[in-house]
Amino acid sequence: MTDKVALVTGAARGIGLATAKLFIEQGWQVAMVDRDTDELNAAAKQFNEARAFSCDVSRSDDVIEMVSEVLASFGRIDAVVNNAGVADFRPLEETTFADWRRVMDTNLDGVFLVSLATIPALKKTKGAFVNIASISGLRASTLRVAYGTSKAAVIHLTKQQAAELGEYGIRANCVCPGPVRTKLAMAVHSPEIIAAYHDSIPLNRYGTENELAEVITFLCSDKASYVTGQVIAADGGFESTGVGLPALRD
Ligand SMILES: NC(=O)c1ccc[n+]([C@@H]2O[C@H](COP(=O)([O-])OP(=O)(O)OC[C@H]3O[C@@H](n4cnc5c(N)ncnc54)[C@H](O)[C@@H]3O)[C@@H](O)[C@H]2O)c1
């Protein structure tokens, strides 16, 4: 057991829920944050070591209130996993400003707001940020003008955090998941996209929520105490193969 506390956003399901579960298995306590209150409460109920905090991370006032409730409840925060995200796949020319804002509000502003509100707590514990971007933030692709741009910005925001917060002993790293069969991915991955991913990924399969959670919890742990400002793709090798022309793979 440790007395460490992790705050995980988007923890009601998917990668965030798997991360909360793995933290608990590793002896941490977890503040589970999500805007889907019903799913969040149902998810948190299964753990004695977790508490649910309903909050939309894109709303500044709500985030400030949520962080003060987490601190009132647990007394400290050692790691913040900025995982809450939304996806929107559509052609650039069909992307309205409202579509763009909806993605940026959560994927970029949410990371900024939760980070800003938790810096004082992380200074006290010399804690860690892990921000969840995507392979879509590492290279451009069709259908992802807002999503990919938001995730590329999260990669850079992580480096800014590492540069400015290192002097307080705060580490900041970024994880870029490849495809994982969550509700977010399945809403935008057609059968053709799924088949193409299988074909292009050296490990020939989607990742699992738990495989992502392993990387995230490692980066939050003391085992990664000299790792900061890094971007780790947990993607079955997708990013390392670059363009990866299918014709050259046989
Ligand atoms: N699944 C994939 O293939 C994949 C690939 C690359 C990156 N990612 C990233 O991983 C992260 C987790 O995604 P997932 O696949 O587990 O998705 P998911 O849809 O299963 O879970 C996302 C959670 O975030 C919550 N959420 C969304 N907007 C929020 C907001 N404004 N405030 C609070 N909570 C909010 C949702 O309610 C949901 O519970 C996201 O940042 C996503 O972009 C996922």
TrEMBL record:
It holds the Pfam family adh_short_C2. InterPro entries: KR_dom (IPR057326), NAD(P)-bd_dom_sf (IPR036291), Sc_DH/Rdtase_CS (IPR020904), SDR_fam (IPR002347). SMART domains: PKS_KR. GO terms for molecular function: oxidoreductase activity, acting on the CH-OH group of donors, NAD or NADP as acceptor. Transmembrane segments: none annotated. Residues 4-183 form the Ketoreductase domain. GO terms for biological process: fatty acid elongation. Belongs to the short-chain dehydrogenases/reductases (SDR) family. This is NAD(P)-dependent dehydrogenase (Short-subunit alcohol dehydrogenase family). It comes from Sulfitobacter undariae.
